[in-house]
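Students often ask why inverse folding is considered easier than folding. One informal answer: many sequences map to the same fold, so there is more than one right answer. In these notes we will look at a single instance of the problem. The structure comes first.
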C-alpha cells in the first residue's frame, strides 16, 4: 500500500483539466486544501465548493465493478473499507456544517466525460467563461482521453 499514490493521480489530473477547460478556477495545494476536513483534492473558494476525486476501490463506490474486495484477509479489508467510508461521511457532514458544498467525482465516472461534465454543471454555477465544445473529443485533456484511460503504454 506504500506505493499507492495519494496526489496527482490520473483521475485527479483529468478532473482538474476538465474543470479548467470548463472555465472554473480552483486551488490544489492551497492552505484551504490542507485545513479543510478530509483534505479535499480540489477547492473552488469562489463557489465555496470542495471536490474529492475518489477511487472506487478505496472509497467503496456503491454498485461499481471496481469496488471489489480482495479474496485474502477479508476481515482486514472489510474493516479498512468501513473506516474509509465512515471517515468520508463524517468529513462531508463537517464540511456542510462549515458552509462548504462537497462534490465527489468517482474514478469510474471520469471515464465517461459526458456524465462527468453533467455532474459538474449540475453542482456548480456556470462561469461567465463557460463554453463547452460541440464534440467532447475536442477537449484536449492534459492527462488522457476516455479511449486511453487506464491503459498502460
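Output (designed amino acids):
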Amino acid at each position: 500500500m506504500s506505493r499507492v499514490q495519494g496526489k496527482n493521480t490520473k483521475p485527479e489530473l483529468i478532473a482538474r483539466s476538465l474543470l479548467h477547460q470548463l472555465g472554473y478556477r480552483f486551488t490544489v495545494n492551497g492552505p484551504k486544501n490542507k485545513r479543510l476536513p478530509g483534505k479535499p483534492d480540489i477547492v473552488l473558494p469562489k463557489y465555496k465548493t470542495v471536490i474529492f476525486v475518489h477511487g472506487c476501490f478505496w472509497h467503496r463506490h456503491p454498485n461499481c465493478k471496481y469496488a471489489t474486495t480482495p479474496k485474502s484477509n477479508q476481515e482486514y479489508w472489510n474493516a479498512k473499507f468501513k473506516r474509509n467510508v465512515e471517515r468520508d461521511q463524517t468529513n462531508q457532514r463537517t464540511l456542510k456544517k462549515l458552509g462548504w458544498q462537497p462534490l465527489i467525482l468517482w474514478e469510474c465516472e471520469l471515464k465517461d466525460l459526458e456524465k462527468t461534465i453533467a455532474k459538474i454543471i449540475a453542482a456548480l454555477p456556470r462561469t461567465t467563461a463557460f463554453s463547452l465544445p460541440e464534440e467532447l473529443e475536442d477537449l484536449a485533456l492534459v492527462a488522457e482521453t476516455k479511449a486511453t484511460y487506464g491503459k498502460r503504454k
